[in-house]
From TrEMBL:
UniProt-recorded name of the protein: Dehydrogenase
Pfam family for this entry, one: GFO_IDH_MocA_C3
Start and end residues of each GFO/IDH/MocA-like oxidoreductase domain: 132-258
Record organism: Halolactibacillus miurensis
Lineage: Bacteria, Bacillati, Bacillota, Bacilli, Bacillales
PANTHER family: BILIVERDIN REDUCTASE A
GO molecular function: nucleotide binding
Amino acid sequence: MSKLKVAVIGCGSISKHRHLPEYHQNDEVEIVALCDIVASRAEAVKEVYGGTVYTDYKELLKNETIDLVSVCLPNALHAPVSIAALESGAHVLCEKPMATTKEEAEAMIEASEKSGKTLMIAHNQRFVRSHKKAKELIAEGAIGKVYSFRTTFGHGGPEGWSVDGKDSWFFRKEDAVIGAMGDLGVHKADLIRYILGEEFTDVSAMVETNAKDNITVDDNAVCLLKSTSGVIGTLTASWAYKVNESNATVIYGEKGVLRLEDDPNYSLIATYTDGSKVNYEIGKIQSNEEGQQTATGVVSHFVESVRTNTKPLIDGVEGKKSLDIILAAMESSQTGRTIKLN
């Protein structure tokens, strides 16, 4: 079977540390094109992975025959570039958040449906082993009825990881539209939906810019969520965790508590009301701090979905449901109201 031809649009940190290495180690694909408005970035990546360099994604899509496209661009460009790639006949893996408005997300889903091409959103937390195990435990009733949760994603900010440091697009509203909530909060919205296996109906939030100077997006947020079955919990996203990154989720149930990525030694700890306790040794979550970015499972799942013509775990519809929570949180903070989701 011939290899799938891949183009990566955007050659910043997310493509450098995740998409490109994961494509490179996948025997079923070939990296044939790279695009970045800063030509030197694409040229530097070419030295490692090969491929033809472009500075205009439209020229790339016109000139190349591409099977797969990774969209690794500022948030405001996710929708237009993904739609253009889908319309050109390519399957698309788009970074999160998939879009910045409901209308953009709907247009992306429509483009995928019309073209018959796969649209997947790169929510890598669904592939973390502790998260998958927790989902299994909840589904089989190990902790009984779930009552509450808290889930958080926080670190010192994109300046420590973005290719542009403190001058990163992450901090500019015209490019990012949404700050820490779009960068980190949407990950946890997607994760808690996945683990609990249900949707959310009510969102209330306080979203602030109080940790960084000279930025035009949010950097700190605390959200209160309510699910269809009445589970309530908190979701926090922050660029103000200056000392230690946190990616912890704790789920409280009738028969026990699950602690995910909340302990230095065990990725998942299950403590039960009968006094028993299980420490799972199933590998730590990958983090920006530790730089282990080459086996998230996202790219391999995307490639497999295309090869087998099966729906990916996070298609456009799934991506939009997680985005809707974040958009509702932003609206709640602006209006002071609890936002109802369909």
